[in-house]
Structures are given as C-alpha cells and as structure tokens.
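Incident log, support desk, overnight shift.

02:14 A customer reports that sequence design results differ from what the structure should imply. Their input is reproduced verbatim below. On-call engineer (initials T.W.) acknowledged and began investigating.
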C-alpha cells in the first residue's frame, strides 16, 4: 500500500494543461488513490499521466514509468495493467490523485506522447475516448 508525505517541500507546479487534457470526466475511481511512486523520478505528476495497477499486489496503483530522460513513457512493467488517467497535476511527493476511468482525453495535451502506447491503452480503457482538439 502506498503512503504519501503531507510535508510541503516547495515544489513548483504548473497546471496550465490541466483544463485542456481532461476534456470530459464522466467517471473516476471513487476517492482517488495514493500512488506508489517508488522509482518515479519526475518531481510532478501531471494531469493526463497514465496510471497503472500492479496485478501481483492489488490495489497498488503507480504512475506509468517514464524513460531515463523523462521525455516519453517507458514500457509497461510485467504484471501491470492500465488503470486510468491522472485528472489533476500533483507533486510526486504528494501523489494523491483522482483517476479518470470514463471520459475524454486530449492526447495532444498529455505530458508524454501517447503514440507508442495508445492502442494498448484504448484496449484496456475502452470507456476513455482519446480525441485531439
């Protein structure tokens, strides 16, 4: 089970794309979830970031890993499934997020390109429509 620090560490957060990445929120995981951010290096988890779930230790939710340069999504880890999309930007140290499960996402506004994972995400999350504006 993930734990989250409530200390303010002065991380600068820009939420400029929050209003355009999640176009329509029809349903989400009730109450949101605290994410297990072990090994996740960015200081901020942005709206539109993919959330995955560890099938071996449910209900362990995590942000989708990113490559070493934090410029693209890394491969989906073994025994993990796509669970949803982060609704609002949060500091990684306070990884308490709302997770979209039904709605519309603008893939052009997501924090990392979706092209390499989009077909797998659409198959796993059929109630989320990905439509560029």
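02:41 Re-run completed on a clean worker. Output:
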């Amino acid at each position: 089970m993930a734990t989250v620090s409530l200390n303010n560490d002065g991380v600068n957060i820009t939420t400029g794309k929050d209003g355009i990445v999640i176009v329509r929120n029809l349903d989400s995981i009730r109450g949101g979830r605290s994410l297990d951010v072990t090994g996740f290096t960015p200081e901020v988890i942005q709206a539109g970031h993919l959330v995955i779930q560890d099938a071996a230790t449910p209900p362990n939710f995590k942000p989708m890993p990113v490559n070493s340069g934090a410029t693209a999504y890394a491969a989906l880890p073994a025994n993990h499934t796509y669970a949803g999309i982060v609704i609002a930007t949060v500091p990684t140290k306070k990884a308490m997020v709302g997770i979209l499960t039904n709605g519309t996402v603008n893939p052009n506004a997501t924090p990392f390109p979706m092209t390499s994972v989009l077909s797998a995400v659409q198959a796993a999350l059929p109630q989320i429509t990905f439509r560029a504006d």
